[in-house]
Amino acid sequence: MQNIAHLKFQTSLYTILKAFFHFYLLSPPFFINSEVMALPLLSIFVFSSLALFSLTESKLNVDYYNKSCPQFEKIIQQIVVDKQLAAPTTAAGALRLFFHDCMVGGCDASLLISSNSFATAERDTDINLSLPGDAFDLIARAKTALELQCPGVVSCADILAVATRDLITMVGGPFYNIRLGRKDSFESYAKDVEGHIARPNMTVDTIINMFASKNLNVQEMVALVGAHTIGFSHCSEFRKRIFNFSNTSEIDPSMNPTFGQALRKLCGNNSKDMAAFNDVMTPGKFDNMYYINLQKGLGLLASDQAMLSDPRTMPFVELYAKDQDAFFKAFAHAIEKVSVYHVKTGKKGEVRRRCDVVNHLQVNSNKKIAS
């Protein structure tokens, strides 16, 4: 019955959004003036070692809140629908927020903690400064609604995981199960972030090795990077591809020339607020167009486009470009795997009353960060 309910939810959400995105998808704009934050290169795909069958994961289950908060998923769904319809970039933002959280110490909502007078938290490191406000707002709204219904029961980490899944489904992506029962971390350390998020100038080899160190193989990496089918990036993330690329070429030769010239016009005069969609054809729809774009030289980010020429990643790019079902299946598998990475259960975490503040403030004098 639960699977049937999920299927009905997925179908109904798609129906709601179909008209909303119709013109947007058929006449896709290449660029946006981004006051909302951009989705940087691969930043949402770096994680530390996974172990699917750990003892911790065995404590998670999809029915965790059936008795303690039976309205949990219904409340999340309503908040998700309202927010996505009001701010269509929310889905990409929440997906990025989810991965940024999971990659540093696991899926424990540490990224949601705000900095305080003692020190700086994860969310205020340089690479996290562009995390979109709409994504944080979504989680805050959901937490408030759930605290009114079931005080002190539902963790922020579970809210983020389920809201992200529902948003992916809402914009056309695959449904996948989320095991529940995560606890929220007690701390958030800014110094822990560096080295766990990929930067735009990383080579494919570096990224493959990074994913391998987290027990994510090449196929899983390529599938997860497909999340760039939604979202967008600031000019600073790809400027080196379109200005003074080399002594012989102003534009990266792997980029479609017409696309490159349009990007040069967009990003001229060192504009800091402009951004371009990662998927220039269907930017608001979760589909396999991202991979098709790579085959046409329409990849925005250098490391994305490079996957088409690397013999380790190219077969999966080509597979997902011609077979969306294969992409969806691989993505669902990989993101489920990520969603249980280093989760905290029992006394190793807490259920925060507010997602941006731990229940009891402590100061770690070694790391000079409040937690």
UniProtKB/TrEMBL annotation:
GO biological process, one term: hydrogen peroxide catabolic process
Gene Ontology cellular component terms for the protein in this record: extracellular region
EC numbers, comma separated: 1.11.1.7
Presence of keyword Zinc: no
Positions contributing to Ca(2+) 1 binding: D101, V104, G106, D108, S110, E122
Gene Ontology molecular function: any one: heme binding
Disulfide links within the chain: C69-C150, C102-C107, C156-C355, C235-C267
Cofactor note: Binds 2 calcium ions per subunit. Binds 1 heme b (iron(II)-protoporphyrin IX) group per subunit.
Domain Plant heme peroxidase family profile, residue spans: 59-359
Coiled-coil ranges per UniProt: none
Record: active site: H100
Binding site for heme b: H228
Transmembrane regions: 12-31, 37-55
InterPro entries according to UniProt: Haem_peroxidase, Haem_peroxidase_sf, Peroxidase_pln, Peroxidases_AS, Peroxidases_heam-ligand_BS, Secretory_peroxidase
Binding site for Ca(2+) 2: T229, D279, T282, D287
Keywords: Calcium, Disulfide bond, Glycoprotein, Heme, Hydrogen peroxide, Iron, Membrane, Metal-binding, Oxidoreductase, Peroxidase, Secreted, Transmembrane, Transmembrane helix
Enzyme class: oxidoreductase
PANTHER family xrefs: PEROXIDASE 6 (PTHR31517:SF17), PTHR31517
Function noted in UniProt: Plays an integral role in secondary cell wall biosynthesis by the polymerization of cinnamyl alcohols into lignin and by forming rigid cross-links between cellulose, pectin, hydroxy-proline-rich glycoproteins, and lignin. Removal of H(2)O(2), oxidation of toxic reductants, biosynthesis and degradation of lignin, suberization, auxin catabolism, response to environmental stresses such as wounding, pathogen attack and oxidative stress. These functions might be dependent on each isozyme/isoform in each plant tissue.
The name this protein goes by in its record: Peroxidase
UniProt organism field: Nicotiana tabacum (Common tobacco)
Phylogenetic placement of the source organism: Eukaryota, Viridiplantae, Streptophyta, Embryophyta, Tracheophyta
